[in-house]
Amino acid sequence: MTPVLEAKNLVKTYGRVVGLDGVGLQLLPGEILAVIGDNGAGKSTLIKCLTGAEIPTSGELFVNGEPVSFKRPQDARAAGLETVYQTLAVSPALDVAANLFLGREVRRKGVLGSVFRSLDVKGMRERARAELTELGISTLQDVTVPVENLSGGQRQAVAVARAAAFGSKVVVLDEPTAALGVRESNQVLQLIRTLRDRGVAVILISHNMPQVFEVADRIHIQRLGKCAGTITPQSHSMTDAVAIMTGAQTL
């Protein structure tokens, strides 16, 4: 099976500081790949290089087997890669529908859209409702509610729904449950499973080992800027994963 996203020998240096040191990664279609590692292991740098936020010093990137070069996040989005950062990047003053189409607003047809640049608010709200329903998000019935009035889990759902609506191939989630309670975390994990069931590949960055072992198909372990190995929840335990992550055990 051709990986939907593949990285080979990624290197990223900041002067004399090495952020990534020859990291390789493969993400298969419809797979949840967790990326774990201690602070400073290179997780964020790896994700930024995969999604165009950073340009690798050297190495190769492939989407569906075709070589790509992302110079900015928009390039990754055009290739079907969407990222939900830990900060969410939602606009609190705008409603749910406006946040789903943030930066991709749809104009009305005809003169109103081309000359007067009027937005198709009704159409965007209808599509937003359809997207939320398809993802099984039942806690967001009213897409006209400002995001600032939502709970943390609901805001996370808005950010994930936006990524799912436009990420045709890959959705990258950076610590999606870090600031959430148990119930809201379970809702986000269910969203991740729904994305996989729709055939969308997911990269999940997380420090929460129980959640990683609950939803991930494979686990990529970062250590000191390198890939310490790739395991599965069936082949290794959480204790093994932590041992590999800290260097107490090697693959």
TrEMBL record:
GO molecular function, one term: ATP binding
Keywords for the protein's UniProt record, in alphabetical order: ATP-binding, Nucleotide-binding
Recorded coiled-coil stretches: none
UniProt xrefs under InterPro entries: AAA+_ATPase, ABC_carbohydrate_import_ATPase, ABC_transporter-like_ATP-bd, ABC_transporter-like_CS, P-loop_NTPase
PROSITE patterns xref list: ABC_TRANSPORTER_1 (PS00211), ABC_TRANSPORTER_2 (PS50893)
Sequence ranges assigned to domain ABC transporter in this UniProt record: 5-249
Record-linked Gene3D superfamilies: P-loop containing nucleotide triphosphate hydrolases (3.40.50.300)
Signal peptide: none
Pfam families: ABC_tran
Name of the protein: Sugar ABC transporter ATP-binding protein
Biological source species: Paractinoplanes lichenicola
